[in-house]
Design goal:
By secondary structure, this protein is an alpha/beta fold. Helix 1 crosses helix 11. It contains 12 helices and 12 strands. The chain folds into 2 domains: 154 residues, Isopropylmalate Dehydrogenase, CATH 3.40.718; 157 residues, Isopropylmalate Dehydrogenase, CATH 3.40.718. A hairpin with a 4-residue loop joins strand 11 and strand 12.
Length: 339
């Protein structure tokens, strides 16, 4: 399996991208990595870690970088030698390449993927679906989390199908419990879009719809997948991640504020370490862009080596489980007259 690694655009690029992919390659003997970026910098990192181009590793020179401040359409048109656009071009043109992992600018990645890669047959709009841990040791997916700000009721239906197939085939979740993000759990709650979406989701035979969900219950473990528009989903994910990080900072500050707290913390050192790992979003990889013809995984801009390795894990699992074929079949079965 050949996977492209966009080596620029993240806070820790290209080191995190290169080292993370190398770490993933140790787990998958059949995985080949194509590193796209500044050739000299990539080769130096490979040499530093006892690797070099050849065999399962290749390097494509693309020195330009797309930043988050650039207008996506301008970046796609003007920065053809950027690592992201060169990687998208390779993904589109080479049938042997299966997937792309990038920590670059989200807007440019979505625009380039939509324009150059195309959608799975029947998909209205691709959607991001990040994974977060729940308090009972499980996980919850959020679809969409930023790809589509303005959506329709039918797109919410599709997000439920896309996310359900993803959780089933990549994470082994049987009959994922699907909830609609809303301001209350009652059936009649929400704006016109949410009130219209509720009865439609109830009728979709291919998903396990369990009703509305308030944002405070995201990590409760009561739900496996939350469907929402990209604006609400992005706010939900970033607020949750930000709260977790700030809470850890608060705990650390309070521990060091008094000697008695420090003494108690020594006895609970292992528990605090476990809590930190549990609440660290870097441990859960990135967001798969569900609905594109080829697999694309978007990592956090702040991704470290471990997070990039998790992103590669996700891309590998999506391809191994032939998820896109199953998505297309589900969409066709759920609305044969429309799809």
């Amino acid at each position: 399996m050949k996977i492209l690694i966009d080596c620029h655009g993240g806070d820790n690029s290209p080191r995190a991208n290169v080292l993370g992919a190398l770490r993933a390659m140790e787990r998958y003997p059949d995985l080949e990595a194509i590193f796209v970026g500044d050739e000299a910098r990539i080769n130096a990192l490979l040499a530093e870690n006892g690797s070099q181009p050849g065999g399962r590793i290749s390097v494509v020179h693309a020195p330009e970088v797309i930043t988050g401040e650039e207008k996506p359409t301008d970046a796609i048109r003007l920065k053809k030698d950027s690592s992201m656009i060169r990687a998208i071009k390779l993904l589109r043109e080479d049938p042997e390449i299966s997937a792309l992992v990038s920590t670059g600018a989200t807007g440019s990645l979505v625009a380039a993927a939509t324009l150059r890669i195309g959608r799975i047959r029947g998909v209205r709009r691709p959607a991001f679906c990040p994974i977060l841990p729940t308090m009972d040791g499980g996980m919850v997916g959020i679809c969409d989390s930023g790809a589509n700000v303005d959506i329709t009721v039918d797109q919410l239906r599709q997000f439920a199908i896309l996310g359900s197939r993803y959780l089933e085939n990549v994470y082994g979740v049987e009959k994922p419990r699907v909830a609609l993000l809303n301001i209350g759990t009652e059936t009649e709650k929400g704006d016109a879009l949410r009130r219209e979406a509720y009865p439609m989701l109830e009728k979709v035979a291919d998903i396990n719809f369990v009703g509305n969900m308030e944002s405070r219950d995201l990590l409760s473990g009561k739900y496996d997948l939350v469907v929402c528009d990209g604006f609400s989903g992005n706010v939900l994910v970033k607020t949750t991640e930000g709260t977790a990080l700030e809470l850890l900072k608060k705990i650390k500050k309070d521990i060091y504020s008094k000697t008695v707290y420090k003494m108690g913390a020594l006895l609970m050192k292992r528990m605090f370490a476990d809590m930190k790992e549990f609440m660290n979003y870097q441990n859960y990889g990135g967001s798969v862009l569900l609905g594109t013809e080829k697999t694309i995984v978007k990592g956090h801009g702040s991704s470290d080596e471990a997070a990039v390795a998790k992103c590669v894990d996700q891309a590998y699992a999506v391809e191994k489980n032939r998820m896109n074929e199953k998505i297309e079949a589900s969409l066709k079965a759920s609305a044969p007259d429309e799809e």
